[in-house]
UniProtKB/TrEMBL annotation:
Catalytic reactions of this protein: dTMP + ATP = dTDP + ADP
Cellular compartments per GO CC: cytoplasm
BP terms from Gene Ontology: dTDP biosynthetic process; dTTP biosynthetic process; dUDP biosynthetic process
Highest taxon of the lineage: Archaea
Phylogenetic lineage: Archaea, Nitrososphaerota, Nitrososphaeria, Nitrosotaleales, Nitrosotaleaceae
NCBIfam families, per the entry: DTMP_kinase (TIGR00041)
Alphabetized InterPro entries for the sequence: P-loop_NTPase, Thymidylate_kin-like_dom, Thymidylate_kinase
Keywords carried by this UniProt record: ATP-binding, Kinase, Nucleotide biosynthesis, Nucleotide-binding, Transferase
HAMAP family given in the database record: Thymidylate_kinase (MF_00165)
Protein name: Probable thymidylate kinase
Pfam short name (any one): Thymidylate_kin
Domain named Thymidylate kinase-like: residues: 12-203
Length: 222
């Protein structure tokens, strides 16, 4: 959908452990320091949907289509309540995952690609979309350092990829990377090497964002 907003939408995508959340957090702090009115939205964070999704996961009742529709409902709620109004009001909105997360994950789980994209066709195209690309083994190692036990759906165990939880997770994330690589070309993602150190990545992010700040009226400091 074409944007008619005054604000700017900046999103980050990548598999778990790619470092994208760290980078968008640093970007949020930097923009706020520069006096930019900024708001950050995170995937699967709508209070309206979170409890339902959690119950479905615990009971193992989520089919690929149910999973997709729950996340779509979560996104639509956040989009209508926060993202769209703030963009129209001229704010910078940062999204830790956007519709492309659904495209990648739902398609890997077997949902029809055209159907998934149709569900999200109300969402505007971001001004900048960063894709933090890392080899699957590096991303998995990062995740397992802080999260020794994987969750059932997180590991892709519902897809019968492997009886081993960790091997299933690697296969699942590897397939998501394939989808992201395809989206990166068709959607014009800015690809960032997620194996670079944090400072190098953030410098690349800031240089890409700088042109969006031209003519933007900074917020007055109190």
């Amino acid at each position: 959908m074409k944007s008619d907003t005054r604000g700017k939408l900046i999103i980050v995508e990548g598999i778990d452990g790619s470092g994208k959340s760290t980078q968008i957090h640093l970007l949020e702090k930097w923009l706020a320091y520069k006096g930019v009115s900024v708001f950050k939205s995170e995937w699967n964070s709508s209070e309206m949907v979170k409890e339902i999704t959690s119950k479905g996961k615990k009971k193992g009742l989520l089919t690929p289509t149910t999973f997709s529709l729950l996340h779509a409902t979560d996104f639509a709620d956040r989009y209508e309540r926060n993202i769209s109004p703030l963009l129209r009001a001229g704010h910078f909105v940062l999204a830790d995952r956007y519709v492309y997360t659904a495209f990648a994950r739902d398609i890997v789980r077997g949902c029809n690609p055209e159907w998934v994209k149709k569900v999200y066709d109300f969402a505007i195209k971001p001004d900048v979309a960063f894709y933090f690309k890392v080899p699957v083994d590096i991303a998995v190692d990062r995740i397992l350092i802080g999260r020794p036990k994987l969750k059932y759906y997180e590991a892709g165990m519902d897809m019968n990829l492997s009886n081993d939880q960790y091997e299933s997770y690697r296969i699942f994330q590897g397939r998501i990377i394939e989808q992201y690589d395809s989206l990166a070309e068709s959607e014009g993602f800015t690809i960032i090497d997620g194996t670079l150190n944090i400072e190098e990545q953030q410098n690349i992010v800031r240089k890409k964002i700088m042109p969006l700040l031209e003519g933007h009226q900074p917020r007055k400091r109190i």
